[in-house]
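Re: that backbone. Tokens:
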């Protein structure tokens, strides 16, 4: 049994449609965090949750893009014991299905009545006071983000290598062969390598390593995840190799990085 009131962290990622005002007057501890330019790989974003230690997270956006959905999935992976409610203007059945599969407690399409949010928070408060522990999800179980949201990411300059980008997003924890991603893009390995470098100004291996390092930094912002688990979750069976690469890309060893971001 919990004797105190739950703390709420409201992540405001909206550019237009806002519902933060619905929280005004709520007799619970609420932290509102405005995130204008969300980058889920930035450890500062993940450390917000580590520092505030909320019991419920509100994920409020208008038209979510790929980085925002990646951030939401990162929250569900790193803090699976914390329920999340999602608000969006996006009318998408595939997004709703993905959100619930990822572990979102509730999903609403805006505009909606203020009372619905307040009733949800009240219901959670009652459950919080009566339940001592919530089950964790499997860290390795990842549901692909609906494909239509990849096209909202302006950082992807071409669709020719989109299949490889999508594959890295959902399979970076595994061993990835060049011929596998080349085939996904309907190219030979040589043509794929040349095309990928033209579009992204780096080799596919460099892109994959950077993606894994970004994921590692986000994971290490959580003090409850070990360096060994981080290496495995990011596709590295060799811990020493992971540590060398991490230091090369981050300027700190994994232990130094984790200590820096979890000591605040």
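Recovered sequence:
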């Amino acid at each position: 049994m919990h004797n105190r009131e739950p703390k709420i962290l409201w992540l405001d990622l909206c550019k237009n449609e806002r519902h933060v005002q619905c929280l005004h007057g709520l007799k619970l501890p609420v932290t509102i965090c405005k995130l204008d330019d969300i980058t889920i790989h930035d450890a500062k974003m993940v450390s917000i949750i580590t520092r505030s230690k909320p019991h419920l997270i509100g994920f409020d956006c208008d038209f979510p893009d790929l980085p925002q959905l990646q951030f939401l999935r990162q929250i569900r992976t790193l803090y699976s014991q914390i329920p999340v409610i999602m608000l969006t203007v996006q009318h998408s059945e595939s997004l709703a299905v993905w959100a619930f599969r990822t572990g979102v407690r509730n999903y609403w399409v805006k505009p909606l009545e203020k009372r619905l949010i307040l009733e949800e928070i009240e219901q959670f408060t009652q459950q919080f006071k009566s339940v001592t522990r919530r089950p964790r999800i499997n860290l390795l179980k990842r549901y692909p983000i609906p494909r239509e949201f990849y096209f909202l990411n302006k950082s992807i300059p071409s669709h020719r290598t989109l299949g490889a980008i999508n594959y890295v997003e959902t399979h970076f924890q595994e061993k990835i062969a060049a011929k596998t991603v080349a085939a996904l893009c309907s190219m030979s390995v040589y043509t794929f390598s040349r095309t990928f470098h033209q579009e992204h100004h780096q080799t596919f291996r460099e892109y994959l390593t950077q993606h894994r390092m970004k994921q590692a930094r986000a994971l290490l912002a959580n003090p409850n995840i070990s360096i060994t688990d981080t290496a495995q979750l990011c596709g590295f069976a060799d811990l020493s190799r992971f540590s060398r690469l991490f230091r090369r890309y981050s300027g700190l060893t994994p232990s130094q990085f984790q200590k820096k971001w979890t000591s605040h």
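Residues 202-264 form a domain with the Arc Repressor Mutant, subunit A fold (CATH 1.10.10.60). The chain has three domains: 8-130, 156-201, 202-264.
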